[in-house]
Amino acid sequence: MDILRICIFLLLYVFIGCDAKWRQLTAPRRVNARVSSPYSIQVKWRDPGVRTRVKDGRRYILRYYSSETGSMHDQRAVENSTGTFALLKENVQEKFIRVSKRRAKLFGLSPATTYKIDVKVVKGRRSSPWSDVIEVTTLEEQIDESTVQNVTAVAVSSTSILLSWIQPEVTDDVMAYTLVTMLVNGRNRIKKAVVASNVTSYVVSKLRPNQPYCFRVQSMKMVGPHPMSRPVIAKPLTAKPSGLPHSLKLVSVNSSLVVVSWKPPNQRTRNGQLTGYKIAYKRKKSRRNEAQYVTVGNGQRNYQLTDVEPNTFYKVRVAAQNINGTGPFTKWKSVYVKPEESREEKNPLPLASIDSEGLDAHTNVSLSVSPPMDIKVVNKTGNDLFLRWSIPETPACCPLIGYRISVKKLNDSTVRTLTTRNPEAHISDLEPNTIYEVKVMAMNSAGESEPSSQLVSTAGFENPQIIRVEGAKVIEGKGTRLMCEAKGKPLPEIVWVHERSRRVVDKYDRFRPTDIYTRSNTFAASMTRISFLKVPRALRKDAGRYLCIARSGGKEVSAHINLEVEESEQAPAVSKIQAIPLSPSSVSVTWLPPLNYSDRIPYYQVSYRKLQGSDVARYKNVTRVGTELYELDHDTDYLVGVIAASASGLGEKGPEVKVTTLTNEGLEPVNILVTDVNET
Length: 680
Known about the structure:
- It is a single chain.
- 4% of the residues lie in helices and 48% in strands.
- The chain folds into 6 domains: 116 residues, Immunoglobulins (Immunoglobulin-like); 86 residues, Immunoglobulins (Immunoglobulin-like, Sandwich); 91 residues, Sandwich (Immunoglobulin-like), CATH 2.60.40; 92 residues, Immunoglobulins (Immunoglobulin-like); 105 residues, Immunoglobulin-like, CATH 2.60.40; 86 residues, Immunoglobulins (Immunoglobulin-like), CATH 2.60.40.
- A hairpin with a 7-residue loop joins strand 46 and strand 47.
- By secondary structure, the protein is mostly beta strands.
- It has 2 helices and 51 strands.
- The strands form 12 sheets. Strands 3, 4, 5, 6, 8, 9 and 10 form a 7-stranded antiparallel β-sheet that branches. Strands 13, 14, 16, 17 and 18 form a 5-stranded antiparallel β-sheet that branches.
């Protein structure tokens, strides 16, 4: 036995020790680097913990710095918007890059500089020690008189960047320029374009939004290329999310709750940091404009819909959002909301299988249901009664079917009868200030119970009365609302009328009247109604007096409400207008909105005209802070100006900028594709 115990102990020790060793992450090995250019280095390494191609969530952090700036420090890194990790400690030029594969490429390095590089593994909250440090020296920069200088990259849109450069000092042997584009930390896919020797700008298109790209320009000669220019890193502008949320699931929990869950779109299609999600839902086969929308935060991956009706089909879809707007919605997905739960048993025993006479004789058990108790008047008006009672006791063999209610005036023989399945009833078409006798009987498969009787009376009519109104004072272009609260019996209806035009405001107008019922309980509404008249964007012509009319029982009462609209402030001049020529016939114009101006700017007016001659100015209205002007004359000077508009009209006019379109001489076709076609 002692030998057996010792063997078991050794086996457990070996197993636990191996398991602990397996759980500990091992530092990468065989880190090697290859110098690609004076500005870039390719790094590769091996991970002893990865023996298969199955992904297990491992990521790698590569740390590098110039040996001339100091030594390495194991500091905590923070990731910025470009994906590069920067240390919190100042005066230390260490940089970090996080990748998912066992290779990386470093850009933007200094020529003829020695760098120290090491790597570690990260998986969840665990991390391995740093690998051995290697030293790599970049190549010396080769610059001659034919090297392109001062390469600049300016983002024009979310998918294009404008490159511009200065021609080299010696251009005698320059035949063309080659533009090299590569995604930073991508799969080393290079895009090339060739332009003529007299062109100094080019628009690189079909780029990914908000992704860093590396650009270089190389002059070409007859016998070979000249050295490349220094690399320039730039990112296109951000855009709306182009991807769809996936794995949309809908679960109907009960008759008033539907749980919606989804997963975020692909990282490449988010176009920046997501700010939230937009959920749209509506009844099936309803109109598109009847859909309701809900917005949730970025960290939320599910939502509970409670504004649903039982026994109804609904359609739901979801879209991702960022700072630029809402992306495309997913396809509509249907869900059936469960009906209300019945109080009847699911599998009642059939009445034919029970001998009622023998059951009563031997066990003395009654099959009839008990009478309903506690009949209460929940609410009443001059013509309506709302009743509720308690659920009676029912035998297990014979489930409850429903209730029968009889109503008649006191000292009158005329009886009205109605049935219901729920322990509540709404009796309408009654006379005001009248006493009625109400009897309620429960029904099951064995018959009806004894009636429960109650004397109730309807309420008298109460003339409508407006108890509270609220006007508004708003600046032109802003939104506001007017409020009117009225009471009466029965519940009054509120109508809004523009006093000057005597026109009734309905839901199809620009103003949207909305009623809000204040409820005293979940069964019936109280006798107070509040109505709001929403004004989305007030104009000067909307100012004046509005009439709130409350109608109830054939009578009506009205009250005047004032809406004051003040003239909005004139929009200041825009700043930093830039005009960049894109081609001989087009120019890109960008600017910044007016400073210290919080009102809404509906549009911008862009004007452009020729500097020489008596050319009439042309205008273009845009809603964004940037546009492109087309159909211009080549090699011509233009004056471009931008004016911001407000609700009251055009704002202050700022200075105009001068721009010269590109020349139309010496242009050659780019990327010509020749295809061999046979005789047929």
